[in-house]
């Protein structure tokens, strides 16, 4: 019974401290600079070139957190993103919450990266999920966990105008905006967000140019309140 209680406590702590609070991970950049970072999870795929075209039209760079299977299936898209000046970072091998992966699979998940061998490698866990091992494995693999503070919610069945309005209400200087390379609505949503950022005097930059900052206690408490509606 005690072992089961300890395991449940470790799982709960991983979710609360790692995903919801994000303590120790990388989050938004300085709030004093009029910069934001656009990030896309799950690609590359059929929507990648359309997203890249929207970004090019606005002169905006972005960071793409790509998966191993999609990278292997679409090496031409990976090269196209790199050639366009976008940043490529890791979203893992299996798009599953970390708690559903045994430790040896999570080790492979954290270690994989499309730019293996280069410095400053980031890993964004699917769903932002953490197991009790995630941070330890990331440290061993010399990866930094990269989260976000603003969600485009493009997985919802809502009009792009409504999603853009909600996103732009949340965004601030230094924000890291989470979008996805896949949903049909995302290219239109991206266009609306970019127009809105321009009107607010906010400039999109790559994550490395933001730059992201470590999430401390105060920022983590604010994330906790937002995550659980407190």
TrEMBL record:
Q: What top-level branch of life does the organism fall under? A: Bacteria
Q: Name one GO biological process term.
A: carbohydrate metabolic process
Q: Name one GO molecular function term.
A: hydrolase activity, acting on carbon-nitrogen (but not peptide) bonds
InterPro entries listed in its UniProt record:
Glyco_hydro/deAcase_b/a-brl (IPR011330), NODB_dom (IPR002509), Polysacc_deacetylase_ArnD (IPR050248)
- Do you know which PROSITE patterns this protein is assigned to? NODB (PS51677)
The UniProt record lists the NodB homology domain at: 34-205
Q: Name one Pfam family in it.
A: Polysacc_deac_1
Output this protein's name: Polysaccharide deacetylase
Species of the source: Deinococcus puniceus
């Amino acid at each position: 019974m005690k072992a089961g209680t300890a395991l449940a406590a470790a799982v709960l702590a991983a979710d609360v401290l790692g995903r919801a609070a994000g303590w120790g991970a990388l989050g938004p950049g300085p709030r004093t600079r009029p910069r934001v970072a656009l990030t896309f999870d799950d690609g590359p795929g059929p929507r990648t070139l359309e997203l890249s075209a929207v970004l090019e039209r606005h002169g905006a760079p972005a960071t793409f957190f790509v998966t191993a299977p999609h990278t292997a299936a679409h090496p031409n898209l990976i090269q196209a993103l790199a050639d366009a000046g976008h940043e490529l970072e890791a979203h893992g091998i299996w798009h599953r919450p970390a708690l559903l992966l045994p430790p040896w699979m999570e080790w492979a998940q954290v270690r994989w990266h499309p730019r293996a061998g280069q410095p400053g490698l980031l890993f964004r866990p699917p769903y932002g999920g953490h197991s009790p091992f995630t941070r330890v494995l990331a440290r061993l693999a010399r990866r930094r966990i990269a989260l976000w503070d603003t969600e485009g919610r493009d997985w919802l069945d809502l009009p792009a105008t409504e999603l853009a309005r909600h996103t732009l209400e949340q965004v601030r200087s230094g924000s890291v905006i989470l979008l996805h390379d896949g949903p049909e609505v995302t290219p239109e949503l991206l266009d609306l967000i970019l127009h809105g950022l321009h009107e607010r005097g906010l400039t999109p930059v790559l994550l490395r140019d933001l730059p992201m900052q470590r999430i401390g206690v105060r920022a983590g408490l604010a994330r906790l309140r937002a995550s659980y509606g407190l």
